[in-house]
User: Fold this.
Amino acid sequence: MRNYTTQMEAARKGIITEQLKKVAEKERMDVAELLPLVASGKVVICANKNHTCLEPEGIGSMLRTKINVNLGVSRDCKDYDVEMKKVLESIRLGAHAIMDLSSHGDTIPFRRKLVSECPAMIGTVPIYDSVIHFQRDLAALTAKDFLDVIRLHAEDGVDFVTLHCGITRKTIDQIRTHKRKMNIVSRGGSLVFAWMCMTGNENPFYEFYDEILKICKEYDVTISLGDACRPGCLADGSDVCQIEELVRLGELTKRAWEQNVQVMVEGPGHLPMDQIEANMKIQQTLCMGAPFYVLGPIVTDIAPGYDHITAAIGGAIAAASGAAFLCYVTPAEHLALPNVEDVKQGIIASKIAAHAADIAKGVRGAREEDDRMADARRTLDWDAQWTRAIDPETAKMIREERKPEHEDTCSMCGKFCAVRSMNKALSGEYIDIL
Amino acid sequence: MRNYTTQMEAARKGIITEQLKKVAEKERMDVAELLPLVASGKVVICANKNHTCLEPEGIGSMLRTKINVNLGVSRDCKDYDVEMKKVLESIRLGAHAIMDLSSHGDTIPFRRKLVSECPAMIGTVPIYDSVIHFQRDLAALTAKDFLDVIRLHAEDGVDFVTLHCGITRKTIDQIRTHKRKMNIVSRGGSLVFAWMCMTGNENPFYEFYDEILKICKEYDVTISLGDACRPGCLADGSDVCQIEELVRLGELTKRAWEQNVQVMVEGPGHLPMDQIEANMKIQQTLCMGAPFYVLGPIVTDIAPGYDHITAAIGGAIAAASGAAFLCYVTPAEHLALPNVEDVKQGIIASKIAAHAADIAKGVRGAREEDDRMADARRTLDWDAQWTRAIDPETAKMIREERKPEHEDTCSMCGKFCAVRSMNKALSGEYIDIL
Assistant:
């Protein structure tokens, strides 16, 4: 019988949970160092008490940056087997979290399978599932229906739920008068907005936030406060709609912490590079250091087909400036649902961004991996290079396809190889080039 | 008969050249605005007087960031037809410069073909060609041989040459004592280093710099001052070897400017993200605003196979902090010579980095493209989106492969599409989701 509800409550009581111990170990921290971070909300350990096969991870700006993979079936892509392949690929590639965004058919079996088999954190967006679960159209759903689905997901063992609590009826006018280029591009946010427009009611995720906190506390579900107004293009970046919602997310963070409920805050989206750091710093102050979970930010709107790259640029800068958790973006973003290969490309781009940021912000152990790769390159030790590579198969395949004439050359320069020339020069050997 | 030698001399005399006029137009600048930038060396227009089919471009931190493609045959990759395919693909994708790094066989015909047919700037690294041209091994070459090859390239119409003038005999000791992880990874730099070690002589590109300036002045060849000591791994970033060479490159910049010779300065390389801005700022001061031409910087060493992405992250930050010219990096970097598909991936990643940076630094017209894309996305106008996309074919292909059920949805969410929901909500329509 546990003598605490959430990881936050445990930390506040000074209880060192199994999860906290494991996270401290992974992060090369003392539990004494990690405990106050969890107690104060600066680190979350998303660990639903019903997700028993979880390998816990901490999320917070002083820890290694974590990455999330979105998947799930939809009307346009209904094959659960393909989604399961994406799950396996995600785990293999080291994703820390998987969000099941399923919005078609019977969503229960896949979600339960994930929780029972998957060691990564599982997240959902309950509002997607509400329409599906009750098989009633959006306007016909009640606030109670939404809460019932949150409870269902909590019971099922989901570790974190995205809830768009930060928009209110005032947002309707604001969006109308402010004339954003892209209005609301958050899928869940647009559903809340549409529901408010059609029913005339206040946002139920805002109005009944206290009820929601009770559910989340009971199962230790971390709330990921959704940013309905995240900019969907550069022109909407850092505008009043976005920042006013962020102010409200800060207030909601405080209310959750008062109930010992763990909170992350979601962030942009599309942003010009020069606005990213400012966004990260403002989130840190407004939300008092709660972990920032960003989607992108994508740094240009004109690269459909390559948004894993636009997001890697933005994500690296965001994480280096304080974001703790990156949602992957795949090459299919803005175009279609990702296939298994897109999932792989998205994960690797996110991992690069996260790792580059961890080096920049001095996360423990991050740079060591690069130093070992440099040693392997200097000594032209190809096996060691494969071991150190983020994706050994791909790296190996490129070299195997086009093997150089001389194995003692680094790759593509033949005897012009700088590594070879320098190794010879520094040991006083004659350097033949021709 | 032209009444000036170089574009810099013309600008200093107040002569508005054809090239300056075209560059001003492309950059949406008045010639009166551009002229002092060229006169002071802050912008270069690489335009060899023998490269008559050139479509001139300016390179400087206040202009659109330009990108360069490296190609050329080597012993491991001897097929000039493949290289010509890369050239055509580069031009089609909008590369601004092509460096012919050929180091095998008869290099003259390909170089001359490039200059006679290619509207992009052409660059070379004459030291590569020296060994090949004379068919004598490195140690047997004399300073005069190196100068003769520079003159040959200048006569052939090459617009800019990379010369590793900044290392000296002192560098030999420095590299030995400083114990870098990767020593020298610049190919040309390693050849100069090897030549100095074997002959006992001073760096001829440093010792005979005045002779070189005379050649460059005669043909208006821009010198791209090579950074022999650019870091080849994160551990070597911003170390004394790199920065001391940069100090010397600043001195050499000044000497070139005294002779009206145009100069760019080459830079890293591999750098942790948190060192990039500092590097750009120091280059700006030490080299008095001469355009900075960077290779990467690559922000982690552990991603072979994905270095177009690691370089896009670093390149975007570098360009946003003042770099003017990005050398592309392909997925094959560190592994093999790039094939045509790698060249494409490298160019697109560089273009994304350059454009994202141009938005961030407020280059004229840069953001307009993104705003037009946002308009096309809001109105779900797919044809307009293809027109605005950086690679329309790839974007179109992804969508065509996986067409959604409803054409009025943005892509992958079916009726959950946020754009569709918002368009309906804001026009007061009923929003059906199920």
Summary: The CA atoms of residues 119 and 145 of chain B lie 29 Å apart. Chain B is about 50% helix and 10% strand.
